[in-house]
Structures are given as structure tokens and as C-alpha cells.
Design brief:
With 126 residues, this protein is α/β, with parallel strands linked by helices. Helices cover 24% and strands 27% of the residues. The mean pLDDT is 89.
Length: 126
């Protein structure tokens, strides 16, 4: 049984950009307004390995790569940006989206914050 991948190039103007930035990597996903992923990239996917994945330059490269793909295939022109996580790639990714010439309709920080749930993990030492 073989799977057949459908390449559906839908032309749409609006989309959502999700930037998940951890201390080790930055992952960028572009979806349509329904949440179906159109394109994605990460610092590792953009060619960075090891500690270089956690740099702002790597995040910029990953965002540029995914925005170029989304513009070419889907004609994306306006996005809502959702930032998540504490990493170094957050601000760099936002700057890169602005520089790409795509208008930003909304910026939201969706970092999960506990409302005093279970006891947190012990602190990192060193």
C-alpha cells in the first residue's frame, strides 16, 4: 500500500505564523486560517547543528526559508503571529517577518504560564 501525497497549492492571502522558541531550537510553522500547516521550518532544518541552532541568526534563517516557501506556493500577504517559549529566536523571528514585506495583523504571546499547578522542576545548576 503506497501513500500518495497531494500537493494542493491554495492561493490565500491570510495565514498564521507560529514561532516556538526554546533554549535549543526555534520552530516556525505557517498555517492557513483553519490551522492546516502550509509550510514549516526549524533551525536544524535550515542547516544549523548543535549550539548554533539556539542563535537569533539561525531563527532568522529558518523564518526566511519558510516565508519564501509560503509566498511562492500560496501567495501569503498578511499573517497573525503567535510567539511561544523563552528562547533567543523570538525577537529575531519577528524582525525577520517584518523585513520580509508581509503585513502583520496581530502579534500574540501564547507561552504557557502555570496558574500554580504542580510543583515545578528543580532549578538548573551551573
Amino acid at each position: 500500500m503506497s501513500k500518495i501525497k497531494k500537493n494542493i497549492n491554495r492561493q490565500l492571502k491570510k495565514g498564521k505564523v507560529y514561532v516556538t522558541s526554546s533554549f535549543n531550537n526555534t520552530i516556525v510553522s505557517i498555517t492557513d486560517m483553519d490551522g492546516n500547516v502550509l509550510a514549516w521550518s526549524s533551525c536544524g532544518n535550515a542547516g544549523f547543528k548543535g549550539t548554533r541552532k539556539s542563535t537569533p541568526f539561525a531563527a532568522t534563517t529558518a523564518v526566511d526559508k519558510v516565508l519564501k516557501k509560503a509566498k511562492e506556493e500560496n501567495g501569503l500577504s498578511e499573517v497573525s503571529v503567535y510567539l511561544k517559549g523563552p528562547g533567543a529566536g523570538r525577537d529575531a523571528a519577528l524582525r525577520s517577518i517584518r523585513a520580509a514585506g508581509i503585513s502583520i495583523s496581530m502579534i500574540a504571546d501564547v507561552t504557557p504560564v502555570p496558574h500554580n499547578g504542580p510543583r515545578p522542576k528543580k532549578k538548573k545548576r551551573g
